[in-house]
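Morning F.,

Quick status update on the modeling queue. The single chain you submitted on Monday has been processed. Sequence for confirmation:
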Amino acid sequence: MKLQASTTDSFIAMRIAAFRNLMCGRFLFIMALRMMGALVGYWMYELTNNPLAIGLIGLSEVIPAVSLSLHAGYKIDTSEKRKLLLTGVGLYFVAVVVLLFLSTHFAATIVTKNTIVYSIYFIIFCTGIFRSFTGPSFGTLVGAIVPKEILQNGISWNQGTWLSASVIGHALVGFLIAAIGINGALSVIVALVAAGFYFIFQLKPYPPVAAKRHDKIWHNIAEGLRYVYKTKELLGALTLDLFAVLFGGAVAMIPVFSKDILKVGPVGFGWLNAATDLGAIICIIIILRFPLKTHQGKKLLLSVAGFGACIVVFAMSKVFWLSFVALLFSGILDGVSVVVRGTIAQLKTPAEMRGRVMSVTSMFINSSNELGQFESGLTARYMGNVVSVVFGGFVTIGVAAFSWVKSPTLKDLKY
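Structure tokens below.
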């Protein structure tokens, strides 16, 4: 069935069966991934009562994720993408099963608490390796499945799927921890990863796009870096996102704020975890119906500055509902950045280079999220929880203001 581009049919990309399977698989996998990220932060704080331990989780994951990103992009461009994605998801399943074992009473009787803590760090290090391949593979398959004339709709659905899975995962994990404990919540995560694997398995093989390649692997890898560097709009959006999330990401400290400042317990922890992504999915729903048609660069910079302001409000709040609303609006504003960045990356990248460019994009995102988690834990240790998050929010505002003045290419961005 040939699909025609439409400005009114918000579901046009979802009418493609392969895209629906990809989105179902991605939804289940991302929901499991986000549940595990939130759960491990909560679990580690319960084990250590040290905010720096939460930051070290991010560092454990970002080192392999960033180190392997460029090679992963080359591997994706030169491999059959369905098989590579299935391998990554399958290995992630094994990692979650090991975490499930470590959460049992039996494990607590045969190993020390410190052994469990260091084992968690090691497993998260391994998941960073797997994510360096799975994340870009999902993005590459979107471009391979969805025709270019409706690609922007497909990108919006792809981002919406990620965000809706994230908000449900973040919210659900708090309720699960309260109801069935950490071990029970990990059992649910195992089931979700397995279900995601099933949907991805339904896809047909997607071999690499034929293209001229150099004999040396490094030359092929460097092409992706050079392309991103030459595409100033994409480079500017990625750099802005890197610094904004690196300093403005308050999500890593939610276990500390929920337990020690707001005193809301695991259920409140779940809602606070979900707030940012709930706001982002609201933004995506609005953009699906009313796409960003003009002045995308200016809207991007203003949304990043607003994001920083919301983080400052969250840090200074002592009331649960105000903290929730601040995070909710931070997610709405962050959704603009997600859509603009994702649209630029897909529309401006040739098919034979999508894996490498998606991996460079993933490297920036992983750097900002996981290094941001480490930065949050480190500054909280030495500056205090509230001051560290306030500092990060103001730095984010400053980065947006600096980009407005010094980066006219980004400010005048249109597509």
